C-alpha cells in the first residue's frame, strides 16, 4: 500500500468507520432505552437525523446556533483580555507568582457551574451570567499557558533588552508577546473546549435562545428526536471550532519554523 493511500485511509476511512460504529451503538442503545416503541423510535438515529434536517431547513436552529457562537466568542475575547496580562505578570514577576499561584490553582479547580447561583444573584437572569460563567471557565487555561510561555522564554533576550535600556512595556511588546503566541494559542484551544462544554448548562440560566436552551426546551416538550438532533449539532459545532483552533495553531507554528 502506497503512502498516499495509507494516509487517505488513516484520515478518511477509519474516522468514517468509527462514526458508523457510533451510530450503530446509538441505534442499539435507543432500542434498549424503553419498552415503549414511540420512545425508542424518537431516540433512534433515523429520527434524530430527520429532525435535524427538518430543523435546519425550517431555520428553527439557526438562531440558537448563532447566539451560542456569539456567547462563546465574547467570552473567549474577555478571557484573553484578562488572562494574557495576568499570565505575563505571573511569568515576569516572581513575587506576583508567589502571591497568586495557590489562589489561581484553587480557583481553577472550582467548577464554573458552582458559581451559577451567585452569578444569577449578582448579575440577574440573561446574557450576563452566561458570559461570566463561560469567561471564568476559559480564563485558566489561557492564563497558565501564558505564564508557562513566559517562563520558557530565552532569558538572554530579556537581558539583552535590559542592557539596551528597553522599558518594561517595550520588553513585553517586542520580546515577550511575540515569544508566547504559540503558548497562548494552545491555551486558547483548551479554553475553547472547556467553555463549549460549560455552554449548554450555562444557557439553562433563563435565556430564551441558545443550544442549551434548545436542549432544555426539547426535553420539556418531549421532542426527543429534536433533542438528539440538538446533541448532534452541539458535537459538530464543537468539533468544527476545535479543528479551526488547531489549524490556526499549526499555521502559526509552521510559519515561525519556516
From TrEMBL:
It is a multi-pass membrane protein. GO terms for cellular component: plasma membrane. Pfam families: BPD_transp_1. This is ABC transporter permease. InterPro entries: MetI-like (IPR000515), MetI-like_sf (IPR035906). One of its GO terms (biological process) is cellular response to sulfur starvation. The keyword DNA repair does not apply. CDD domains: TM_PBP2 (cd06261). Keywords: Cell membrane, Membrane, Transmembrane, Transmembrane helix, Transport. Its main location: membrane. Signal peptide: none annotated. PROSITE patterns: ABC_TM1 (PS50928). Residues 65-245 form the ABC transmembrane type-1 domain. It is found in: Cell membrane. The chain crosses the membrane at residues 12-30, 42-62, 74-97, 103-123, 130-151, 195-215, 227-248.
Amino acid at each position: 500500500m502506497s503512502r498516499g493511500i495509507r494516509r487517505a485511509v488513516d484520515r478518511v476511512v477509519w474516522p468514517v468507520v468509527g462514526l458508523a460504529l457510533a451510530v450503530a451503538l446509538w441505534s442499539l442503545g435507543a432500542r434498549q432505552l424503553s419498552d415503549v416503541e414511540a420512545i425508542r423510535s424518537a431516540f433512534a438515529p433515523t429520527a434524530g437525523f430527520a429532525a435535524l434536517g427538518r430543523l435546519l431547513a425550517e431555520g428553527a436552529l439557526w438562531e440558537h446556533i448563532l447566539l451560542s457562537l456569539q456567547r462563546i466568542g465574547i467570552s473567549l475575547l474577555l478571557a484573553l483580555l484578562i488572562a494574557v496580562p495576568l499570565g505575563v505578570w505571573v511569568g515576569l514577576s516572581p513575587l506576583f507568582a508567589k502571591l497568586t499561584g495557590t489562589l489561581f490553582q484553587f480557583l481553577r479547580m472550582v467548577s464554573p457551574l458552582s458559581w451559577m447561583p451567585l452569578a444569577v444573584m449578582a448579575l440577574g437572569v440573561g446574557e450576563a451570567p452566561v458570559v461570566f460563567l463561560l469567561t471564568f471557565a476559559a480564563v485558566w487555561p489561557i492564563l497558565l499557558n501564558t505564564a508557562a510561555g513566559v517562563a520558557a522564554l530565552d532569558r538572554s533576550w530579556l537581558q539583552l533588552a535590559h542592557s539596551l535600556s528597553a522599558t518594561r512595556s517595550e520588553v513585553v511588546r517586542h520580546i515577550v508577546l511575540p515569544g508566547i503566541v504559540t503558548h497562548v494559542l494552545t491555551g486558547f484551544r483548551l479554553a475553547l473546549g472547556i467553555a463549549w462544554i460549560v455552554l449548554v448548562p450555562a444557557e439553562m440560566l433563563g435565556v430564551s435562545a441558545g443550544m442549551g436552551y434548545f436542549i432544555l426546551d426539547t426535553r420539556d416538550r418531549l421532542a426527543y428526536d429534536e433533542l438528539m438532533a440538538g446533541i448532534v449539532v452541539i458535537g459538530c459545532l464543537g468539533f468544527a471550532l476545535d479543528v479551526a483552533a488547531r489549524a490556526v495553531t499549526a499555521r502559526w507554528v509552521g510559519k515561525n519554523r519556516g
